[in-house]
Predict the structure.
Amino acid sequence: MLDAAAVERIGVAGLRDACDAGVDWIQLRDRSRDGAALLAAADCAVAAARASARAVRVVVNRRADVARAAGADGVHLGFDALPAARARALLGAQAWIGVSLHDPAAVAGASCADYVHLAPIFAPLSKPLERIPLGLAALRAARASGLPVIAQGGIEPGNARAVLAAGASGVAVTGAIAGAPDPARAVRALRSALDA
């Protein structure tokens, strides 16, 4: 997950390198930018994803209008965003719709979504701790719903394998990549841990 400032700092070439190194999708998450600035960052992320040798998806947090205008693959919805069914109606059946959850019991109710983010599994690397980490047991419980669960919060190469072993379909990271001096190298380390 990247905010607009990280997208601007890394740039299209840097994002493309990160995609080529093993990123499967880019999630643009930034409440501080207005629609035009968020669209510019989304355009950059989509350009990088499309220039990659890998098939990389781009989703925009909360803003289905920005996702549609940028040609992104979908939208990621939080508690204050429109319902997943409405996002699907706006973006179409092929759109990738995700929702953020902080309670494993709520995963079963997200049936209109393609996936859920469950967070925080561990203490986040990119921001101060706001919630008590859920841990791997909560991830196992959430996975029982049958929906793909993306683990978020404090994921790095040292704990990525345990997260997958607990049932995560994938991981979402911010600090491990956006805060790294060489984002492509950080992606390769995380990808290596996940693939192992």
Q: What stands out?
A: The first helix runs from residue 4 to 21.
